[in-house]
Each structure stands twice: as structure tokens, then as C-alpha cells.
Amino acid sequence: MGYNLLKGKKGIIFGALDERSIAWRTALRCHEEGAELVLTNAPVAMRMGEINKLADMVNAPVIPCDVSSNEDVTNLITKSMEHFGGGVDFILHSIGMSINVRKGKHYTEIDYGFNAKSLDISAMSLHRVLATAMKMEAINDWGSVVALSYIAAQRVFPDYNEMADAKALLESVSRSFGYHYGVKKHVRINTISQSPVRTTAGSGVKGFDGFVEYAEKMSPLGNASADDCANYIVMMFSDMSRMVTMQNLFHDGGFSFTGVTEAVINKM
Ligand SMILES: NC(=O)c1ccc[n+]([C@@H]2O[C@H](COP(=O)([O-])OP(=O)(O)OC[C@H]3O[C@@H](n4cnc5c(N)ncnc54)[C@H](O)[C@@H]3O)[C@@H](O)[C@H]2O)c1
Q1: H-run or E-run covering 267
Q2: What residues contact residue 138 under an 8 Å CB cut-off, 6+ apart?
Q3: Is 194 in the pocket of ligand 1 (CB under 6 A)?
Q4: Which atom of ligand 1 is nearest to the CA of 204?
Q5: For 136, which DSSP code?
Q6: Domain assignments of the chain as residue spans, ordered by start
Q7: What's the CATH architecture for 10-251?
Q8: Model-level pTM greater than 0.90?
Q9: pLDDT in tens, 104-132
Q10: Which of 117, 116, 95 is nearest to 45 (CA)?
Q11: Are 188 and 144 within 8 A, CB to CB?
């Protein structure tokens, strides 16, 4: 059920690969809340064709963009502004890619060329999107930007590999740019640190099923689903959260502040 929380708002959603994607779930919820959308993903991901199904459901154009390309990001923002006839009110950055994980490289033996690419796609791309949007005056006053993170930015999860460093950088970019965009245009920028979810990106982490089960048992409320995450993002895009910026917001059923649970002790 919708509450018209985003009525009249326009936004860009990065990262809907298939129906399990957090971005996919979020696009559906934003549409339900009355927002107008532009969808985007890397050209290689779009070749699978799934995103066109979502585009039909939410009545949005799809504009390809590899976030590691300045040219693609500029083109995306130009075309989105043409489509909307002006600026946007929100942006979702729901992008992650670890080349070293893909190539099976252990954290202690990563390839630095791959690492530079992973950090660029997963973290500095947020800077690139924000810098381009600022230059082109693409985000309206009091706009809201959300990027997705994971608690491996603060605590060690050995198999999360270089993505832990990427998430730490992503959270830092969100804070630093949040300052500058806040002062300039009242644009707020936050990261949401989400529970593990079975998606394509999530399943790339070694031992992911055990990881999901452990988090479930360590969270007083259980793991937050992709749909729960979509609801939280809608709230962050709405005017209900207009004074929240530069935060890393844990959306994890209480996992981040739990030392141990009876469920875990009983398993020992
Ligand atoms: N699934 C989880 O357990 C979990 C938990 C916490 C945070 N997150 C984060 O949520 C975000 C979304 O991931 P997801 O779980 O929905 O998985 P997903 O695989 O559905 O989404 C990842 C997206 O990143 C896109 N992408 C990769 N390289 C790109 C590039 N060069 N340019 C543009 N897009 C590119 C992919 O095409 C894909 O759509 C990621 O930042 C991920 O790290 C996921």
C-alpha cells in the first residue's frame, strides 16, 4: 500500500539487475509512493534484458551507464534532466563489484590493478555521480542521496575481502560530500548499512549461506530483507527525514549492536 510519500518527486535508481536486487525492490516501492523514475545500470548488465521488465512496471526509461566512466555519468545526468525537464530529488547508488573476489584472490594477495577498479566502481563512483550532479545542478534543493553499505566497513568479516575497504571508502565519501552538498544546496547524503540479502552481489561472498544464517541468529529482529530496505530508502528519500545527513544508518535488525544471542550460544 502506498502513502504518497514521494508524490511529485523524481529520482534516478542505479543497480537493478534482477528482481532480487535491492535497487529493483526500491524502484517498485518508490513507484508505489508516487515517484517518477529513471533506471540505469552498466551496459553489460543491461544485456541480460531483465531491467526492461522493471522499466515497464514502473513506467521509466532505462539509460545505460557504467559508473566508472565520466562520460557515461555525464550522459546519464544530461538525459535524465531532459526526461524530467529539470533536476532530480533523489538518487539511489546500489552498486558493488569486487574484481579480486571474482578472480578468487585472497585478501592478503590481491591484485592492485583489480583493487583500483573495485574501489572505483564500488565507492569512488558515488563521488563521480555527486561531483557531476553538482556541476550540472542536477539535484534539487533538499534532495536526498542514499548509497548501500555493509558493516564490514567497521568490523572484520574475513571473506568480504577488499569490499570491506570499498565500503569504508564509500561511507567516507558520503560523509565528506554530504558536508559540501549540504552547505551548497541542502542536499543530504547517507549510507544504509544493510543486513545480508541473497542477491547476485551478495552471493559472490564466500560462504554466503552460513553468513546469512549467522546474521539471522545474531539479530534480535532477524535479518532485514530487500523489501524492508526498500521501505527504509523510501523514508530517506521522503521529507520525513530531511534533517538526516552524513550518517551511516544501520538497517540490520539490531545486528550491529548485539554482542551475542541465546540462539548463537545454543549452537555452540
Ligand atoms: N546483498 C547483500 O547482502 C548486501 C548487504 C549490504 C549491502 N549490499 C550492497 O547493496 C548494493 C546492491 O547490491 P545487491 O545486493 O542488490 O546486488 P545486485 O548484484 O543485484 O546489484 C549490484 C549492482 O551493481 C551493478 N554494477 C556493477 N558494476 C557496475 C558498473 N561498472 N556500473 C554500473 N553498475 C554496476 C550491477 O550491474 C548490479 O545491478 C551493493 O552496494 C551491495 O554491496 C548488499
Answers
A1: helix 262-267
A2: 77, 80, 81, 87, 88, 132
A3: yes
A4: 19
A5: T
A6: 10-251
A7: 3-Layer(aba) Sandwich (3.40)
A8: yes
A9: 999 999 999 999 999 999 999 999 999 99
A10: 95
A11: yes
